[in-house]
Structures
1.
Amino acid sequence: MVLGYIQRPMEWAFEKAELGFDVLFGRAWNPLFYLGALCYFNFWIVAASGIYLYIVFETSVLGAYNSIEVITQEQWYFGGIMRSLHRYASDALLLFTMIHLLREFALDRYRGVRWFSWIVGVPMLWLLIICGINGYWLVWDELAQMIAVWTAEFLDWFPIFGEPVARNFLTKGSLSDRFFSLLIFLHIALPLILLLLMWIHLQRMNRAKINPPLGLAIGTFLMLLVLSLVYPAVSHPQADLSHVPEVIHLDWFYLFVYPMIDLWSAGPVWGLLYGVTGLLIIMPWLPREKYDAPAVVNPDQCNGCERCFDDCPYGAVIMHKREDDSPYEKIAVVNPDACAACGICVGSCPTHTPLRRDDHITTGIDLPDYTLHQLRGQCVAAVAGLPDDKPKVILFGCARAVHVDAMGVAGVATIELPCTGMVPPSLLDFMLRRGGADGVFLTGCGDGECFHRLGGRWVEERLDGTRETYLRTKFSKKRVRLGWASAADADRLKEDVVGFRDGLPDLPDESHLVEAVGGEEQ
Amino acid sequence: MSNVNRTTPAGIGRYVGQFVGYTLFALLLGYFSASPDWRYFPADKALVKLSFSHAGQRKEACRDRTAAELENIPGSAKVPQACPRERHPVQVKLWLNDAEVFSGSAQPGGLSNDGPSTFYETFEVPPGHHSLKLEVRDNGPDQPGFSHSAQVDLRPRDILAIDMDRRALVLRLPSR
């Protein structure tokens, strides 16, 4: 598929950028993990500064320019800063939006169950750009004049208007004050519609991050504030419809389309915009890799505990009242259209705890294409195949990060999962107790960066004992190691795994806790 | 359970790293929010806009309805004359300094072709003195129309709007 050839280099570039931002900002504040949240944050800055600008703005042909000039020149210490914040936060909003879009595409996070967010994002993108263009009209300087005339000529390419729209900007007397009332109305109404779409955008995402970490938020705001002070936003000369502006200081984030119209004329640019929009809309349904079958609930095992309901990143699990003879009140039901077959629900299900070696595992919720029973068997077989001359480690990885199956470390058996969140903590204890492993290492795309959004977070909390289902084991918890690593982190991960393996003999001997195969179950 | 630490700056290095990151981002924002400049219009040219809206003559003149026709028309619609709505396209030619710069035709607007024909054309011209002549045919291609001539002085970046008010030429120039 052609898209794959575009995706792979982009994915590689984002992985490298991610490592770079880790170095600059630290993992916890890596802005690439909070692109959506940074969009929200900048939206609020734009909204707050916009409220002040609305208060001082005069909706008239003469007043529009003058009112903005007064706050820019005479009230630079507050009004000017608010204006600059309004502009730069708007630019940052669009920039973060574009990076967010590109990254979701590069990481293949736009189809399957994510189609809904992607599709809602398409009109959001155009609406955001229209809001920005609309804002530049309000200043009514030469830039606004250029945008007004260009936009009108662009719209006139469609012969649907009784009179050319551009005639509204023919001469000085063509405009009335009511035009600015219309503009300011649009500049309030359109962002409100955008906010509504931002809300809808997240409707199929459980626990979406809409606020960046405090440190990142403070840093972003300070950056915008300093930029506003050092390089304040200013107006062009006042618009004059009897003279043509010569040189325009263009905001390339929002106004990139106008030079294209100038160079290519309106028809090809309309074609390009429609083409890009059409492509964005059909992308989630272009030929894709096969997805595994959605999770299924085993009614006999489900006790209605709601842990899978809480942990599902896509809201694919819903709780229904039970109608059968079961003593439990509720039962989990999977919406197959929303299920990504990530297996996080399997990792959260407590009905198979503790794991036993000999019986067939039937868990409350499971993946039909990759059952917990199959996973346990695969783990046991993988460790059994390791030589006895080194400590035995089982390494769980996720298919979206470093491919652990290709790592090739002596004494380390590898299991690649749809998401590391699929591993039930009871399986870790089982592998130490009865599976023949001396240590367990978990990796994956992990915290803040989990392909399935919440898998990494849930694994950390389960192992920390702050989220059901907890890791309960009599073994030293030093035998369980967690180390997130994106695909670009393969070398570092390998070093960590080797270090972990080599450190296992230094831990206290716990062989008395190991149960013989076929022995009594606890 | 122990967690492997990923590459994360510590101490002062963390703040230096962020300073670098934010500075680069601010430079990107600041630069592209107003740069590079776009040359919208050449400094040594003026702009002529030919833009007007003018309804062509009706293709068929009104005629008196016969008594038989009126008989078949309901009471409220009993108008003595029948006036077909369709209009002629409008043809326009513009000469600047005796050189033809535009020749075009516009269909009448509206679903019944009964609305005005509209024009919006722009031309870059050198500044200075210009003589212009506008010829409009609104009664079919073979019928004589009307024309106007005028003299204008344009400075660099001036916009001259050539408009019409009914059949009268209206020139809109920057006030001096």
2.
Amino acid sequence: MGKNKDMNDVVLEAQHLTKHYPIKKGLFGKASNYVHALEDVSFQVHRGETFSIVGESGCGKSTTGKCILRLTEPTSGTVTLDGQDFTALQGEALTEARKKMKLIFQDPYSSLNPRMTVADIIAEPIDIAGTYKTRAERDARVEEIMQAVGLDLAFKYRYPHEFSGGQRQRIGIARAIVLQPELVVCDEPVSALDVSVQAKVINLLEELQDRYGLSYVFISHDLSVVKHISDTVMVMYLGREMELADKDSLFAEPLHPYTQALLDVIPRITHERIQDKKILQGDVPSPTNPPSGCVFHTRCTKCMKVCTQKAPELHEVRPGHFCACHLFDESLSEAERQLSLDPTLVAQEKAQETGAEVLQD
Amino acid sequence: MALLNSDKNDKRTQEAERVAADAATAQTGERVEAEKTGKKRASSYWAVSWGIFKKNRLGMACLVVVCILVFVALFAPLLAPYDPDFQTLTARLQAPNSTYLLGTDEYGRDILSRTIYGCRISLSVGVVSQIIALVIGFFVGVCAGYFGGKVDAVLSFIIQVFSSFPFLLFAIVVMYVMGPGLVNLYVALGLLMWTSTARLVRGDVMRLKGSEYIQSCILSGGSSWRIIMKHLLPNCVSTLIVVSTLGIPNAILSEASLSFLGLGVQPPTASWGQMISASQPYIQSNTYYSVIPGIAIIITVMAFNLLGDALRDALDPKMRA
């Protein structure tokens, strides 16, 4: 967790980010349909904080990260970095602004060029930027960063294949922070690692945040990691924001049924019986053809009539706690509030409940 | 914010002190570490590949043969017993004997000396034309694979056109237009043989293009040139080595064919293809005359082909356990 967090200083602001991937068909590559990867996503990242994005696979977490960095161009919406409209930048100005933002990749195996030495990999951003005039200064900086991420200096001239996943991820982290960026997008940085190594890498990320005043956009599907590292959490489903709140209130009192379902399945050591947990039924719908109304209504156990017709908007339910769900919309009529559950969903739910009872007897 | 900054600065100085202390301890251990590093470097990609290659006996044998061929080509004047162009008209078409170990040709020239000198021509044609093919093929392949889209469509079309020409016929046309001669032969073969390199490099680059280290380079503002030279080229080297090793025998065979047809190396320069061509009228009476350059071609081509196979096995990570 960022200790240097400053709530009045916004490093990054995303407004109405939308990304549609065209599905091309036919001879002339006419787009016949679109994958709605991101739909109107807005958030703010404060200086020194860790902003986490969580959700199931395919929910648009990584696309959000890539759109922020403009590795893929968003279809619409803006990204503001340090008060500067990042989405409008081109050429030199873009390169210059990108120095403030870096990315840590998920896969420590494909993110390092197998034919470059560790020192060359880490030094690449400073080599391109031409930050240091002399070789000695550059090498000194590389050594400084290697020590900062806990890499032995003897590794300087080795090749990536000689390292373990955790060490490789340290090399990736070193490359990301060598230019002293303000914001680092961590795209599932630990999900490819062993649990014991995960903890070390997470601790390293926290240590570096404190030392260099970094802000993180932390993309993950692992809620226990998110609970540990985040300041603010955004829950995404099918390319939309479901809930956005600071970590403590989100984990203490999740408002959105989807968040509740997610939190329910975190493995815990308690007296609770596993059977008591509600496991989310059904699959994530296709993002090419998202459900009408609220995109979650096909799997929601509290689905009301209005949910199938009207998409809920993100609004502040509690101070600082945003949620996109009709349950908290007081203006709805009694008719609209009527439960409207999918019959197959009800059947599955019943089966689960009776199964649990049988076991309890 | 100011408070925050000073806090940060404090941390920096502390950090600097720690780094200095670490450096001091590191220096004492450095020599030991350097030794370790030296040892560790030996397990790099190339060292591992060499280890695999060494176990391939056929590959090693071919490497030895290729080395001998290179040696023969380099030191031909020292190895050849006679001047390859010197005619002894009193000793024409002799069978192998103690004076002329492999006999003489229709002008009384020593066949052994001519075969040794022919090795120079064959190897130089193989190597030089492959270098030309490699450079053209790499850049066409990289541009097609890396830039994609319309560039790829156009370049792929050009590759298709070039590779759909009947090879020998096109070579004959090119040699006819440019005129016979060694340099023209290099160029003609180079211009014809780049397509397979380009195709393979294009495939490699398309696979590598999506790699995260290239995305990282783009994020750091790296130019396309940097990505091509620093990331793509080193990762294509094994492909390039294998393609060119397998391309050399093709070039040697083409040189022999073109010289046989009178469009390659011109007499009196000794070339294996041209020797076979000259031996044609005597194929029944003096069989060895045509057989000897033929055997030289077979040995060379086979050695390079098998070496190429062995290299592919050693350099392709997918072939490794």
3.
Amino acid sequence: MSRAGSRIADLAALAVAGLVGLPFLLALAISLLSPDAYLAREPALWPPRFDNYARALEAAPFGRYLFNSLLVAGAVTVGSLATSILAAYACARLEFEGRDGAFLVIVATLLIPSHVTLIPNYLTMAALDLVDSYAALVLPSLGSGFVTFFLRQQFRNLPREYDEAALVDGASRLAILWRIVVPLSRPAIAAMAIFQFLSEWTSFLWPLIVTTSAEMRTLETGLAALYDVAIDDGIVSWPVVMAGAVLVMAPGLLVFALAERHLARGVAVGLAR
Amino acid sequence: MSSATALTAPRPATTARPARRLQLPLLPWLCLAPALGALGLFVYGPILWSLWLSLHRWDFLAAASPFVGLDNYAALLASADFRNSLERTVLFTLVAVPLRLGVALLLAQLLIETTPIRRWSRAVLFAPYVTSGVAVAVVWSWIFNSDVGLVNLVLRALGQPGLPWLTSTELALVSIVIVNLWKNLGYDVLVFTAGLAAVPREVHEAAALDGAGRLARLRWITLPLLMPTTFFLLCVMVIDSFQTFTLVAVMTGGGPAWSTDLLVHLLYRTSFVYFEIGRGSALAMLLFVFLLALTWLQFRTIGRRIHYGGDR
């Protein structure tokens, strides 16, 4: 492409990025208006006011929501990686009867959309008296066909000579997993961790169904509840709602800005989902 | 352990021997147990249970749950709500998918070059995809608000009347299509740029030497070679469209007049607002079979993609 053409294309790319990024900037701008200024014909953008954030935090316990989201997404990430690493290791590097069958059973869950399991999983939680608990938020996501599948591919590609050398040295199979396979697969495991954390962080329908009290809400369901209240009141105080939206988006966007390269890869490997 | 020590210390040896023999087959299954247990309890069990529920009349209070055959399915298929929801979901898919494919392909062409600005633009495009769905739905609810929203502010500034973006049956679905496009753009473009990057440069150069213009090359080289990528994305998008929930739940609540009551939203309100478990389960099973077929197609193309990539 010619130099001028490249320059024009750069400008076009900038314009597209500006358009895509505009909703974020708007949300931030509105959240920083003073509540009165918002109603004025020509609201003053300067100086920025933080009243709306104070009001949003008054209207909804975002600190608690943040804690819940971190806890649930963290527990799901750690838990599902643990089950997946063990299963992937068995399927990739141990010889035993029934291995292919077991792998097939795990991977076949990739074909199953999560919405099919909503009702029964809710009934299970109700039967176990776990509705509105952290356990209910975490348990259904502890197994992952996708993560197991991905890590098995990764583990299979490691040279078998390492295992054999370690076995000769008297290492147990589990020691090989922990000392050799996991450290050598760190990038793949990190990518899966990001993928799992992100999908749990933004999960909405399951927490909406299985939690009932305000204390158990995550950022997603918490913001939705605040927005519903704002609508029902008739007077949607947009600056306050926007402040809430910014609070909910900020952690994810900050992490994304800092680790964009890794994140994009983490999501890119999640292409199948 | 030598046999001599085993003879002098029989007790540990007898426990160790069978354990040894058991250990090798046992370890793999111990490793598999947590994953198989979790998936069995929360994926496989639920599917069977869902099937059972869809064939029985059952509510939370009644003790008996009689077998009713396909009554739930019949009632579902005959209901106006389901027909409306299916129609709106198909319409949504027919509009959203080609739009997403077209815009993503166009932007991928623009963003494939790796100048610093375009790398940065790609990152910005990706931000909506990784952000909270509820938060962006809230922000877009303001943008499309008919009184104070940005779109109507701009329209009025241009001397046009504002439009009821989220409050008319014609426009609400359009608004959801737009937000859906915006939210997934980063992912769509990422997949297309990956596909474009795999098209060998030499093919383009050879065609250019033979006098093929940009459009001709796009038509006769890029598009055919992108077919596997496009088909993969098409499946992803259709599956996505049939599972859209968050945007609809927050922005319109399925309204106005259920014009945005997409299938998963109908599933949600049937099962968890009206607690019609049997009918909800029947809907879940229908959705399952349809998405299963689509996912199966999609997986076959992934297999092919990996093949083309020359991994093995």
